[in-house]
Amino acid sequence: QVQLVESGGGLVQPGGSLRLSCAASGSISSINPMGWYRQAPGKKRELVASIPSGGATYYVDSVKGRFTISRDNAKNTVYLQMDSLKPEDTAVYYCNAAIPSQLASWGQGTQVTVSS
Q1: Cα Rg for the chain, rounded, in angstroms?
Q2: Is the separation of the CB atoms in 12 and 85 below 8 Å?
Q3: DSSP 77
Q4: Which residues contact 96 (CB under 8 A, 6 or more apart)?
Q5: What does pLDDT average to over the chain?
Q6: CA distance 89 to 84
């Protein structure tokens, strides 16, 4: 089972951008799709974006047009480009398989805080 390490979070002002990275300890080429999740305080973890090795990406409505997910199977890495950030995007962000049967152990996540 791969181990997942998320990075790239931080404190950013509304309207700002961040790029998150998720490095896997092993191959992700067979994990389809890969996804980015987030969990805000007091809320359930939600899938915000997913990407298969080939085919269409998925975005939850609240991030459409602002977030872009990508993957580099050669580097075993998944990215989440987040633009036009809003305070409601504040959460801990995690990556993992986007379907239950392929879920790996959850990593530590990376904190994203959007505040002025």
Answers
A1: 13
A2: yes
A3: E
A4: 4, 34, 35, 37, 103, 104, 106, 107
A5: 95
A6: 10
Residue 108 buriedness (CB in 10 A; 0-12 / 13-18 / 19+)? exposed
Q: What is the DSSP letter of 85?
A: -
pLDDT in tens, 38-53: 999 999 999 999 999 8
- Secondary structure of residue 100 in the 3-state scheme: helix
Q: Kind and range of the H or E element at 19?
A: strand 18-24
Whether 51 contacts 57, CB under 8 Å: yes
SS3 state at 94: strand
CB 115 within 8 A of CB 87: yes
Spatial CA neighbour of 22 closest among 48, 60, 61 = 48
Residue 92 tokens, joined: 């801990």
- Determine the length of the chain: 116
CA angle 102, 37, 12 (to 5 degrees): 150
